[in-house]
Amino acid sequence: MTDYSNADLETRKKLATADDTADYVLEVLSNDSEPDVRSLVASNPNTSPTTLQKLGQEFPDVITDNPIFGLLLIENPHSYFIRLSLARSSTTSGEVLTKLAATKKYRDREICWAVANNINTPISVLEKLATWFPERDEFSVAEDGDLVHTGVAINPNTPPHILEQLSHHHRTLVRKKVAQHPNTSVSVLEKLMNDNHKKVVLEVAKNPNISLSKALLLKIQLLLEYLAGEYDQYDQNLIFLTREDRGLLDEITNHPHVPESAIQIIQAIDNKPGVPIAILEKLAQDSRYYVRKKLAKNTHLPVYLMESLAEDKQPEVRREIAQNIATPVTILAKLANDFHSSIRESVAKNTATPRNILLKLSQDRSIRVKQAILSRKDLSAELVAEIFNRILSLTNEIS
Questions:
Q1: Greatest CA separation for the chain
Q2: Would 364 disulfide with which of 82, 145, 232, 369, CB 3.0-4.6 Å?
Q3: Burial group, residue 154, by CB count within 10 angstroms (0-12, 13-18, 19+)
Q4: pLDDT tens-place string over residues 182-234
Q5: CATH number of the domain located at residue range(s) 271-399 in this protein
Q6: CA dist 320 to 71, 240, 251, 349, Å?
């Protein structure tokens, strides 16, 4: 069988639209890496209903615009494929969506979820779907309504009073979606600030409806709890202040309610000088590798901590030390022999790596390490020539 997935893009597009393309070829192309190809398969009248249903989540309106859809609708308007496709489409009227949601069957829960997501769904229907549960049978369980409730919490048109109702939901994911929603009221967000699950609290801190001062205090609370090891789940962009959060960094470090120890931890992560050694040692011994990884970027670490991090069991931590321009030559020399080629590559890219180590790495077994050296712009022409000659010599020996 021909592997059509490896054909060039134009050929795949032609096959996806052709009238005589075999069904199995369209099935292969429905998994294509290019969205345009998958969309064309969804629009092809010869594509099987099974394949169309699979593509319906990604291309709902393309499916309902497909000429074959109208024929299938006339032939069997109550089929699962037809109802699910209509529930997904942004062109489906509120009246039709209301009828589609009038089911309590367990097997129709995905249809109800699609209706709950649909921007055309009337508020009255969203209110009913917020408490939807399937009729009990041998297949259903109590949690089967959660999928539909999540859909309501995601719908951009869901009003505040429904979101308030869902904010008490037993499922963390539903409350998390409520915390993310732009229509969630400040009063509900303030209640969710005390949620037992930090994932929910993290989303509250990001919601634009929360005032900057409250969001700031919430982030401080989460930061302290996180660094104290009270929970492992984290949002890197929220907990560790990145370049996009420079204003918040200044506000936090100047805030009267932030303990000095917390400020010192933030400064250590943010590569600030003058952080007490005790703080640096604590972070270097943290059980969570991503904390150690962040610390390894700090250019103000004492040598003994760099030596410790250079022997970290996690390659991501060692890689940060290999990239650190303040890493001593003795440590770079050790990392130049690391088992992981990506770490040796980082040593090759480091502007602090001396000539003798670069010459050694020029004979590395990894082509990426050699490329890293030759791509550097800070080397003298003499050194580049010497490295290039060494690579050629090694190549000749191998051949």
A1: 79
A2: 369
A3: middle
A4: 999 999 998 998 888 878 888 888 888 887 667 766 766 666 565 555 445 44
A5: 1.25.10.10
A6: 60, 16, 28, 12
